[in-house]
Amino acid sequence: MSDNALSEAAKAVVRRNTEEVQGGGNFELFEQLFADDFLDHTPQPGGKPDKAGVRELYKRLREAFPDFHAEIHWQRADGDVVTTYKTYHGTHRGDFLGVPATGKKVRFETVDAMRVVDGKIAEHWGVANLYSVMQQLGVIAPLPQA
């Protein structure tokens, strides 16, 4: 397989995860898309860095934000590593990081990189703007405007 074909196939796997698993709650597909030895190099606070940990994170996000979905702004691939910049959207209907449901709509940016091996997501590195979420939920006061 050429480098370009490998990159396009990897981007398709990551896009399916974002749209169908994270956004659609398709956890049967999750099992197909993630390698059994998956490793998250940047798990969320209190999360486990393995496949079970990311499955639990996705389920908690969907419980807290039942309409959780992402707007993918761009994806770039370098061989088997796909970097995605996206904005997540959702309505806060359940507990999230200890904050009870507020009914507020939130949005936050995320950049992540996922390595895809043999059609499965094998590794993840990412940064999510959770500070912004806490501000939107009213837990942290907004910074004064300059």
Write structural notes for this entry.
InterPro entries: Cyclase_SnoaL-like, NTF2-like_dom_sf. It holds the Pfam family SnoaL. This protein is of the alpha+beta class and 146 residues long. The chain has one domain: Nuclear Transport Factor 2, Chain: A, CATH 3.10.450. 33% of the residues lie in helices and 34% in strands. It has four helices and five strands; from the N terminus they run ααβαββββα. The chain has a five-stranded mixed beta sheet. α1 runs antiparallel to α2. It starts with a helix and ends in a 10-residue tail after the last helix.
Helices and strands, in order, run as: HHEHEEEEH
CATH architectural grouping: Roll
Model regions low in confidence, pLDDT < 50 over at least 5 residues = none
| CATH class placement | Alpha Beta
Query: Over all CA atoms, what is the radius of gyration?
Result: 16 Å
Q: Output the number of helix runs.
A: 4
Report the portion of residues in β strands. 25-35%
Q: Topology, pairings included?
A:
Blueprint: H1 3-22, H2 27-33, E1 34-40, H3 51-64, E2 69-78, E3 81-91, E4 105-117, E5 120-128, H4 130-136
Parallel strand pairs: 1-5
Antiparallel strand pairs: 2-3, 3-4, 4-5
